[in-house]
Amino acid sequence: MKILAIESSCDETAAAVVEDGRKIISNIIATQVEEHKLYGGVVPEIASRRHCESIVGVVDEALEKAQMTAADLDAIAVTYAPGLIGALLVGVNFAKGLAFASGKPLIPVHHIKGHIAANYIAHPELEPPYICLVASGGHSQIMRVESYTKFVTIGRTMDDAAGEAFDKAARAMGFPYPGGMHIDNASKRGDRTKYKLPRPKTAEKYDFSFSGLKTNVINLVHNAEQKGETLDIDSLAASFQYTVADILTSKFVAAANEYGYKTAALAGGVAANSGLRSLLEERCAASGIKLFIPPIALCGDNAAMIGSQAFYEYTEGGVTADGSLNAVASMPLE
Ligand code: KG4
Ligand code: ZN
User: How far is the CA of 183 from the centre of ligand 1 (A)?
Assistant: First the structure.
């Protein structure tokens, strides 16, 4: 089954053709990041306008690279939630138009389920059930993936998502948006034991809280500025990255052990973080848990992951939408 998938939930306009949920035939991403960088974060109005300008070209290119026309497709899939509403609407309306014109089924996909499905493309042997750590710009969650379409949340963030904390801490450290990968690079030169950062407590043992940690970094930078002191930014980045990775990893591995999972996966933009990848690999191995991580290219937003999840939504869940499909800014996974 060949699915054309469209993703426009944030600042990447993306389209891909994916076969049977596991094989990428084409995968095109047009990023707007350089423009949003000027403002230190994504400007929703600009994001919508750029999606509107790019979407025809991006979809055309995905079909061209796949050497297909709409007639060769079996379905059209689209991210419809969660995300920036104006950005999502561009993809949803384009997908509806294409599905209507071609007479193909329309499959709505939850963005975070897509992030998890990136693992199916990279790892043909991965099948549910397993436990998944999702860490992106908007989400930090521990999920029980019971089947391709059934998810149960065990833990979630009480405030900032991990990626959001990375980006805000990075901004205070003087890095451009999106700062996560700059912290990652700086960390490689720093000493992670130099700054002692707090590990905020949560009422529920598998929930996360990153807001206090982020604020602590911002205060450290501001206090140093006021006193005219110079901080060792590489070591501050390394200390922050290790603290986030340690919090995510220790709770995730404890949850995996408590619930008896021997298979685990990592997903979302923050899955690109080298410190998180290596700490999770080390601790999963120590607990005898087989860990799956997507390649860096599939960690960030892309449409291939949407095409993968769409295959399972359609074949396992029988999910389709009609012309009344709308975009939804916020939606839980269950
Ligand atoms: O999943 P994603 O591409 O978009 C959302 O769905 O939110 O995640 C984007 C987030 C950003 O906060 C970005 O800074 C972070 O992923 N990120 C990283 C790295 N690469 C991307 N964070 C830490 N280290 C990285 N190498
Ligand atoms: Zn995402």
Answer: 11
